[in-house]
Amino acid sequence: QVQLEESGGGLVQPGASLRLSCAVSRNIDSLNFLGWYRQAPGKEREMVALISRRDTTRYGDFVKGRFSISRDSAKNTVDLQMNSLKPEDTAVYYCNAKDQRNYWGQGTQVTVSS
In whole angstroms, what is the distance from residue 71 CA to residue 35 CA? Predict the structure, then answer.
């Protein structure tokens, strides 16, 4: 079993930056993938960024170089640095971990508005 706890969400203006962090209850090197997903009201959950235990990364098409995912094995955390935020980035952001199962955090709200 893996517990995930997100932090770092909030309200920011367009163009601002925000860093999300996810604390993982298990050694992250034992997990195949870590990632961030998001879900906006009335929309399906979508992949934002993934990172493998070999540090291979993958991003949603909408990211376009604005976000960066990273992992820290010493702290058992996975972070998402988000720059140049847009109103359409407003969503609940969920941390995800995968081994043979899929694990989800409770989510953290990110609101981008002027």
Answer: 10
Residue 105 near residue 4 (C-beta atoms within 8 A): yes
Amino acid at 114: S
Q: Are strands 10-12 and 108-112 parallel, antiparallel or unpaired?
A: parallel
Q: How is residue 38 written in tokens?
A: 């998001």
Q: How many residues does the chain have?
A: 114
According to DSSP, the β-strands at 102-104 and 91-98 are: antiparallel
E strands of 1-114, at which residues? 4-7, 10-12, 18-24, 33-39, 46-52, 57-59, 67-72, 77-82, 91-98, 102-104, 108-112
Using DSSP bridges, classify how beta strands 91-98 and 33-39 pair: parallel, antiparallel or unpaired: antiparallel
Say how many CA atoms lie within 13 Å of 20 toward its Cβ.
Answer: 33
pLDDT tens figures, 16-40: 999 999 999 999 999 999 999 999 9
Bridge partners (DSSP) of residue 35 are 50, 96
